[in-house]
Fold this sequence. Notes:
With 279 residues, the protein is of the alpha+beta class. Helix content is 19%, strand content 43%. The longest helix is centred in the last third of the chain and has 29 residues, at 250-278. The chain is rod-shaped and about 85 Å long.
Amino acid sequence: xxxxxxGQCLILLMLLLHTDAIATNSRLGDDMEPHTGPYLxxxxxxxxxxxxxxxxxxxxxxxxxxxxSVSWVRVRDDHILTVDRTVFIADERFxxxxxxxTGIWTLQIKYVQARDAGVYECQVSTEPKISSQVHLNVxxxxxxxxxxxxxxxxxxxxVILRCLVRGALEPPxxxxxxxxxxxxxxxxxxxxxxxxxxxxxxxxxxxxxxVGSLIINQARKRDSGNYTCSPSNSEAITIxxxxxxxxxxxxxxxxxxxxxxxxxxxxxxxIISVAMFKT
Length: 279
């Protein structure tokens, strides 16, 4: 017979091995396959969120598929999109891919549009049919102006035009500015400056706000016209700038000045927020 201390150690070791085996079996989950035919690893609704203009990938994990086929259906209109790798929609943005080693069928939607949002169903051609759903959420960033869409400024004054890109999952890679139909480059002859403050993340909703600015150090009458802020990931927006000479009415200049001060206060608060976040 073994000494009591040795016996206790053996019992403890057996208990540990048994506990580890239970934990391993729990982690294996679906790998301990009692199924005799195809089955889906996830019967719930999977949520996928992407930004308009990017690519979306909707997963469907099928095991023991055998000779059955996998279809993707758009639920809102029951339109069959793909059967296996064959596409049944004229929209070339839709493709189906299969990785045999993982058993995952993926519906790819290129250059996602807002109307693509909704529920998509992965169906396996068993009898009865088995299926799982993926809910696609499409985030649409929006472009906003800081201040009025029509601005009046005095000739010789410094002008800062600003726009915001809100609600983006990823900040824009660039914000272009146009004077009329002509793009304004950083090394332009008029000495105008272009700035972009990126990566201001809203911690509550997980989205970005980016500030784009066009700076005119000394506005002239000829600088009047349409200025367009055009981000890489949201709609363009236009400001109409009027540069007023001394002969115009004082009331118009006073009204414009008050609006400009209000706009500058908003812009200053935004820039301070960006600076505080970065620090």
